């Protein structure tokens, strides 16, 4: 019988990062995500990657 469910990722994400933001910033992130066809996690991860790369 074949395995069911989501296929295993080549680079599984094992760490969880929790960030508290105010309502205003959260709404801005959600609006940006919707406009660009992304979810909140994708927006935050891309923003962090861009910020860190810029600083290195």
From TrEMBL:
Lineage: superkingdom: Bacteria
Protein name: Ribbon-helix-helix protein, CopG family
């Amino acid at each position: 019988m074949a395995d069911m469910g989501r296929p295993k990722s080549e680079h599984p994400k094992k760490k969880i990062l929790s960030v508290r933001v105010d309502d205003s910033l959260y709404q801005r992130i959600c609006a940006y995500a919707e406009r660009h066809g992304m979810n909140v996690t994708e927006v935050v991860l891309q923003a962090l990657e861009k910020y860190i790369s810029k600083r290195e």
